[in-house]
Amino acid sequence: MGTQHPDGVLLDSRRPYLPSMRPALYKEYKDLPSVAFQIGAAAGEPSALAAIGSFSDEERAPDLNTLERILHYSAGITKKIRGYAFRAAACTGALYHIELYVVCGKISGLDAGVYHFDPKGSQLLRLREGDHRTALAEASAGNETVLHAPVTIVYTDVYWRNAIKYQARAYRHSFWDSGTILANMLAMVKSLSLRATVVMGFVDKDVAYLLGIDPMEELPLALVPLGAEAAPAQKAGSKLAEIDPDWEPKTNGRLEFPVVSRIHQETSLTNPDSVSAWVQASTSKSEGPKTQVNGLHLNTLPDSALPKDSLERVIEGRGSSRAFSRDPITLDRLATLLDRSIRPIRTDYRRLKALAQTYIIVNAVESLAPGVYQVLVSSEEPRLGLHRIRLGEFRSRAAHLALNQALGGDAAVNIYYMSDLVETLRTYGERGYRLAQLEAAVMAGWGYLAAYALGVGATGLTFLDGLVEDFLGDSADGLKVMFLLAVGVPRK
Ligand SMILES: Cc1cc2nc3c(=O)[nH]c(=O)nc-3n(C[C@H](O)[C@H](O)[C@H](O)COP(=O)(O)O)c2cc1C
């Protein structure tokens, strides 16, 4: 797809990236009415490990404070260290190119409207007055979940802010970096006992029109309806007017990334009929055979031994590990992390089986021989197991595969989330590319959170696609790497 590392190195030498080119990290609107957040201290419960990878079925609406917490602990600034603003979720190159919008009816404390979430000012800025949820529902071909949700969060990507450094690979980062935010958001929503679904079937340009953005410059990525009400949103009387709000920073058209534009266009849906057809075709496919876990069974930590830290505290304490000691982690911690990470995501295109398949390079896990394993997952007990592919000491190989970064070699485990892209594209059409990347990233985001909840460290890492696939050999035939998460004991 043209998004691999150029000549096996991180940055394209023909398009150098200098620190002085680092774009602004925030989309800043001018002169819009604002609603300032009042977050207060992090909640002491429920525990992070009870929320990560789980979904609630409760039908209720969030109030303003609940919505603020969801946004803050997904994409807000959670701490400042030496003037550097840390965000709730990890992001490639700390470039923070993903933007969040709120489309809501009236909820307690907040008027109906379309808002932009401004992490820098910790506030919502109103782009449109009134209830425009039916416009979003129409863009998603009458999606019932969107129609009944009091609030829907819209994810977009101002992709030039990432592509200026990573060039075409930024299209993967669209989904990786929205996936880590989404992992936090879904866990937050569960911890606040609300419903959430990830909706990927929508007319890209219609969602962009509602937000007042150019869909080729700022890419709509996902809709996340939150909460549920019995009565559906009512259609607004008048036609949706065009809006053209002013913001900074703009590229002024100087930057062009044709590979990204082309892939995004090819994976876009252009009218509600094509959305309906896509959702219909995607959900009617059969599940395929059930997986049996017949390798080494993995036992997670018993409930009584699970750390009880709350999700909000875990997110506040999170930060990608910058170095790992070579110390081992325990097998039950690894099992618990994998258990929370590899879970089905509730979506509009759902079959039960996850698109991602998981392989691990074990460098140092107590009671587990170093080597390469496939993680087996079943919907029945025993849920998790390991299939041994190759035993051996692969620290230097793991570092090499992670684009020659020591973090890969020093980690206790490298978790590779892989996907059969050919099969995914056959099932979901071109848009399947987005789903495969996003699902893997959400799972890795859950893995990130679970690692911190379990008292170990983690970081996303980039990788050399072809070499990983060669290294895994026949056992991962046809699979492509989507995301690499390295987990280990942080070096002080
Ligand atoms: C998908 C993804 C890939 C990443 N790749 C690397 C990497 O190759 N090397 C690295 O040192 N950090 C990597 N990171 C970590 C980011 O640099 C880090 O998230 C960012 O600097 C923000 O810091 P924080 O996660 O501590 O908040 C990656 C993060 C993500 C989400």
How would you characterize the overall build of this protein?
The protein has 16 helices and 17 strands. It has 492 residues and is α+β, with helices and mostly antiparallel strands. It folds into 2 domains: 6-283, NADH Oxidase (3-Layer(aba) Sandwich); 296-488, NADH Oxidase, CATH 3.40.109. The chain has a 7-stranded antiparallel sheet with strand order 11-14-13-12-15-17-16, sandwiched between helices. A 6-stranded antiparallel sheet has the order 2-7-6-5-8-9, sandwiched between helices. It is globular and about 65 Å long.
Task: Record the SSE blueprint.
Layout: E1 28-29, E2 34-36, H1 48-51, H2 64-75, E3 77-81, E4 84-87, E5 98-104, E6 113-118, E7 123-129, H3 133-139, H4 144-148, E8 151-158, H5 160-166, H6 170-191, H7 204-211, E9 218-226, E10 247-248, H8 258-266, H9 272-283, E11 296-297, H10 311-317, H11 331-341, E12 356-362, E13 371-377, E14 384-391, H12 395-401, H13 406-410, E15 413-419, H14 421-428, H15 432-453, E16 457-461, H16 465-472, E17 480-488
Antiparallel strand pairs: 1-10, 2-7, 3-4, 5-6, 5-8, 6-7, 8-9, 11-14, 12-13, 12-15, 13-14, 15-17, 16-17
The structure holds flavin mononucleotide.
